[in-house]
Amino acid sequence: MKLLFICTHNRCRSILAEAITKHVAGDRITAASAGSSPQHEVHPDSIKALKRHAIDTDGLRSQSWSEFEDFQADAIITLCDQAAAESCPVWFDASVQVHWGLHDPSKSGNDDEFDKTIDVLVRRISALQDHDNDSANPNGLRLRLEQIAEQIH
Questions:
Q1: Is 7 a catalytic residue?
Q2: Which of 88, 127, 149, 152 is the catalytic position?
Q3: Active site includes 12?
Q4: Pick from 15, 31, 131, 132: CA 20 to 30 A from residue 109's CA?
């Protein structure tokens, strides 16, 4: 399965989701992150929080969703409300699109907020990878992703 996590600036929540997915799911899920208006640098507190949780940060970078035209994600998961309201590029139309709205921990600069966000993402990705996912069944995948967001806060 291939997931693309989207936040407008691709410097905090989507970066956390990418790194956590790689950490939790290993090679069972291919993960990447991007934004509609990337800031071209990962928020330094995101890196510090991931390192504090012993999650690899190598290769993480803020990048535009235009770099993923050929990625062919099974699911596009938006993590910020602003990104969820944006019109996605036409090449995302073949992918399931769901919203996993999360509070932006970078706005507080508080380690506890980052820890809460990381905990939610770890539990959501664990629930997804523990489920027998059939990425060839878009409706089933959409339903499972929506259920995970509803059940794990």
A1: yes
A2: 88
A3: no
A4: 31
Q: What confidence tens digit (pLDDT) does each residue in 31-45 have?
A: 999 999 999 899 999
In the Cβ-directed half-sphere of 96, how many Cα atoms lie within 13 Å? 21
Go through 57-83 and write b for each residue having 16 or more CB atoms within 10 A of its CB, e for each that does not.
Answer: eeebebbebeebeebebbbbbbbbeeb
59-82 residue pLDDT tens: 999 999 999 999 999 999 999 988
91 within 8 A of 72, measured Cβ to Cβ: no
Domain range annotation of the chain: 2-151
> Look-up: residue for tokens 């934004």?
35
Which of 1, 3, 6, 7 is an active site residue? Answer: 7
**Angle, vertex CA 59, rays to CA 81 and CA 39, nearest 5:** 40
- Match domain 2-151 to its CATH number in 1.10.10.60, 1.20.120.450, 3.10.20.30, 3.40.50.2300: 3.40.50.2300
Identify the bridge partners of residue 5 per DSSP, sorted by sequence position: 33, 77
Min mean pLDDT across 14-18, 68-72, 90-94 is at: 90-94
